[in-house]
Amino acid sequence: MNILHISAECFPIAKVGGLADVVGALPKYQKEIGTTSNVVMPFYNNKFTKKNSFDKIHENFIALGHNYYNFKVLKLKDNDLGYDIFFIDIPDLTHKEYVYSNDDTNRFLAFQIATLDWILSIDNKPDILHVHDHHTGLIPFMVSQCHKYIALKDTPTILTIHNAQYQGWFSHNKVNLIPPFDFTKVGLLDWDGSINPLAAAIKCAWKVTTVSPSYMDELKNNANGLEALLRHESKKCIGILNGIDTDVWNTNTDNRLIENYTIENAQKGKLTNKKWLCDKYNLDIDKPLFAFIGRLVGEKGADLFPEIFTRALANNNISIFLLGSGHKETEEKLNKIPKNNFNTFIGYDEKLAHIIYAAADFLLMPSRVEPCGLNQMYSLRYGTVPVVNAIGGLKDTIVDIKDQNGFGICHKGVTVSNVTNAILKATDFYKDKQRFNNNIQNIMQIDHSWSNSAKEYVNLYNSLKN
Fold it and tell me: Quick one: which residues bind ADP-alpha-D-glucose (predicted)?
């Protein structure tokens, strides 16, 4: 079976969020269980593309309304990703340093059209088109409705929703950018008066998946306006929990760490990484270290961080380190907190992120929305206890220490007091050294690899071909 993943992001080529990690890992694990699984994405003018070489395998032009654009399909040379990856290079549209900006409608629509035009030209066509989020959400509509793609009409399409808050809305004034179709079907594109690529994909895809079972349930009541649609289409919806790439996230081989470690010497290895981080950022190594890694946005509860951190630090019995960016006002407030066992790195640094997962004692994830979450899985793998709001994928992956076989800290609801109390609870847990150290070894053995999830996706693919 030949699967083609179509996505705006893929690690390590272009990463903004968890979408890249999923698309960068899932095909590799699907290949390991005997499925041909590859990726196509836009060609960005970024660090990865500048330092790598590509073969041109196709060239043509597309029409976007009344405008015509040349495009090339490139294949990565010297590829050690574990699957083939293809790039749609439309110099006038996709050849940008950024992934997302205010010209996304035209760029991603052109990317989708060029992808389908290329698929029409190849002999070994995909058996399944697996699209990810709204950036590729018009493909299920175009495959089923656009006249030029009638040869692909019987090709099953699967949509995976990584984050339903972003839907790619644009005006009906741009409907002419989509290749010609029977206009009586224009309602498939519409939701609440706009063309909505995510809604169109939910309507037209053969199956719809989300990145955790709980998130699928939550979307039926909170999906930024798509609740009724998801309830209506519930029979074709399924939640499949994401996994992590355990080759990349491996404490024994991770070359970004200050010192590698295994389950057997986890306390020593984590302490070495913690010492480096504390020395560099003026934190107290003897205090429990809480960390946050991610975007400073409301979805992550980051707007409350200045007050939460101020309260939590008041007793001077913990340290906090934050790696992230995304909201200037929050950044400014964080920078005003005294650097007394508190510090920040405003921005993102992949090496530093890996060190933090190894160094921290606790990872803070007070998310208001968390479709799956990968950070809590990385932290478990690195022996760091997640402190989470029990929602979405966090609810599916973290069990509170008060429960039998519990190993994390959970709270319900994102308020200053709830998160602060969870930090106090974690601090008390840290004081019970034997229990805490045993917990480190236990959580490092939890299997959140892609192996099981990849099998679930392959079973889903098979159900569409029978």
Answer: 15
Stated as kind and residue range, the H or E segment containing 54 is: strand 54-64
- CA–CA distance, 325 with 302 (Å, rounded to integer): 10
CA distance 417 to 199: 37
Mean pLDDT of the chain: 96
CATH number of the domain to which 349 belongs = 3.40.50.2000
3-state helix, strand, coil in the chain (%, to 5): 40, 20, 35
pLDDT (tens digit, 9 = 90+) per residue, 97-133? Answer: 999 999 999 999 999 999 999 999 999 999 999 999 9
Tell me: do 37 and 110 sit in the same domain. Answer: yes
280 and 158 together in one domain: no
Regarding whether 454 and 435 lie in a shared domain, the answer is no
Q: Is residue 259 one of the residues assigned to a domain?
A: no
Cis, bond preceding 12 (omega within 30 deg of 0): yes
Strand 67-76 vs strand 54-64: parallel, antiparallel, or unpaired?
antiparallel
Q: Is 142 helix (H, G, I), strand (E, B) or coil?
A: helix
pLDDT above 70 covers what percent of the chain? 100
How many helices and strands in the chain, by DSSP H and E? Answer: 16, 17
CA 91, CA 69: separation in Å to the nearest integer?
A: 8
Is 261 a domain residue? no
What are the pLDDT digits (tens) for 386-428? 999 999 999 999 999 999 999 999 999 999 999 999 999 999 9
Q: What are phi and psi of 206, to 5 degrees?
A: -70, -35
Please report the pLDDT score of residue 17 as a whole number.
Answer: 85
Q: Are 420 and 313 in contact (CB under 8 A)?
A: no
| Residue 51 CB-half CA count within 13 A | 5
Q: Output the pLDDT for position 466.
A: 60
Answer yes or no: is 255 within a domain.
no
Please name the helix (run of DSSP H) or strand (run of DSSP E) that holds residue 67, with its range, or none. Answer: strand 67-76
How many structural domains compose the chain? Answer: 2
What pTM value is reported for the model?
0.88
Distances (CA, A) of 436 to 209, 344, 384, 425: 36, 26, 10, 12
Whether 253 shows a pLDDT value over 90: the answer reads: yes
Whether 72 has a binding-site annotation, put simply, is no
For residues 226 and 274, membership in a common domain is answered with no
Give the residue numbers spanning the domain of 120. Answer: 2-245+450-465
